[in-house]
Amino acid sequence: MHILRAACLAALFLTIGAPLRADDVTLTSRDGAVEISGTLIGFDGEFYRVETEFGVLTVDGSGVNCDGPACPVLGSYVADIVLTGARSIGTTLIPPLIEDFAGRAGYQIRREDTDASSIRYHLFDGTGETEAGRFTIHLGSSADGFAALAGSTADMALSLREPVAEERDAVRDAGWGDLDSTHQLRVLARDALVPVVAPGNPVKRLTLPQLAEIYAGKITRWSELGGEDAAITPHLTDPTRGIGALFQAQVGSAEASDLTVHETLSDLTAALAADPFGIAISTYSQADGRNILHLAGSCGFDLLPGPVSVKAGDYPLAAPMFLYLPGRHLPRLARDFLTYLRSDAAGQVVRTAGLVDQGLSGLPVAAQGDRLVNAIRAAGDEVGLDELQRMVAVFSDARRLSLTFRFRGGAATLDAPSRANVALLAAALESGAFDGQQLVFAGFSDGRGAAATNLRLSTRRAKAVATAVLREAETFDPARVAISTDGFGEASPMACDDTEQGRELNRRVEIWVKQPNLAATDEPSEPASDQ
């Protein structure tokens, strides 16, 4: 290979990939000034990916001629988009999204269930004769999705959880970017884990510690919880994957000797209906709301899942459905599908599936249940009436947006749903959704430590989130929206501080929208590290 202009090479090629073997090709720029040879490892109808002595380069096919036995026939390219990961997402949500996307884009579609672990959709042009693309869904686990991204055998990973350190490192080491990046992460929909009992069970609420003790085999009779003197039968899906594994990660290990394990949530629901003394872990989307137990705390707060609390992340046992992407250029069909996923049409599909969508909505204080009652109940010597009045003055004429930002372990690093929210809010700002209004980034803390310290920490969190959103919104003109930040410390808890899940709910940044005087705008500071 020879290079006549290094600057021209830098402009034409972007190094991003991971090497896979294939046949040799030579790509030559239209003017003949630049020539590159290497091993072709992919072509998506627009871009070549070639392994060279410089690494893996992505090359715009419109600017080069291809010579060699591996050069594709440009007119015959058919995009094959592969999604791998959590079976529950791949069976309940992805198929209706693909079908709706295809119909709205003018494709004719045919579904092919090749075996129990995969689904394939063939998309044809309007005539139904020429295949325009394929979507292949491999059904497995979240771990399978991350492994497929690292191995370059999938274009998208479906997951019910964040990647662990080893999975993030594997993707990064393979050259496919940082899964913590807002550009490689989406939340497709939100769900929640819920404890459910058979109809007629007099027990209506449990604390999270009690729920953990039931599945650990430490609480074995309903009489210990104020119910009948009967043995408790705990039900769960496979504890090694999916909902069962997510429950263990959030609540605790399921070690009860009489634990009944089911293959699917449908099997679990049917078994519970026949077991008057059973308890099961289901999902908000699948459970009968009349049989869902409230999650209570020692401070008297009750938490119950609903569209508002699940969307805002105010219910402790969250089950977001993630879509992770590799750090490489995807075919146009995949990019069009990703654009569709942020549309109102996709949100309607999510809601039809019984899940909670990502669409932004606002809620005034008066419609937020016991929020002010809880704030007054939790007030004490350090959080006085004046602080509650200040908070009410800010929120009384405003609406709380349905997205909330929370932090890993209460530190300054946002968790995965919150990083997805950064991109979501940034896109809304860029689109003009809040032009002429004011956004107040309001920070809150848990109740541990001194109130004055918590007030400072909550203010720093609010400024950190505002900075992250504005940094992401590259084309946004700050003059169009008034941005301010404020902190209220422990003045408005969402949950009791008696569990780690409750404290995580309380450490948060909310977004409030109001009609402002646009002249007054706080400049958010750089993110600060806090506890």
Characterization of the model:
The chain is of the alpha+beta class. 29% of the residues lie in helices and 27% in strands. The chain has 16 helices and 24 strands. The strands form four sheets. Strands 8-9-10-7-11-19-12-16-14-15 form a ten-stranded mixed beta sheet, sandwiched between helices. A hairpin with a 5-residue loop joins strand 2 and strand 3. Helix 3 runs antiparallel to helix 11, helix 4 packs parallel to helix 5 and helix 14 crosses helix 15. The longest helix has 22 residues. The chain is globular and about 80 Å long.
Can you summarize this structure?
With 531 residues, the chain is an alpha+beta fold. It has helices spanning 6-12, 87-92, 94-104, 142-150, 165-173, 208-215, 242-250, 265-273, 307-311, 332-341, 344-352, 371-378, 385-395, 416-431, 451-472, 500-506, and strands at 13-15, 24-29, 35-43, 47-52, 55-60, 64-67, 79-86, 108-115, 118-124, 131-140, 156-159, 185-197, 205-207, 233-237, 260-262, 278-283, 294-296, 302-303, 318-324, 362-364, 399-406, 438-444, 482-487, 508-514.
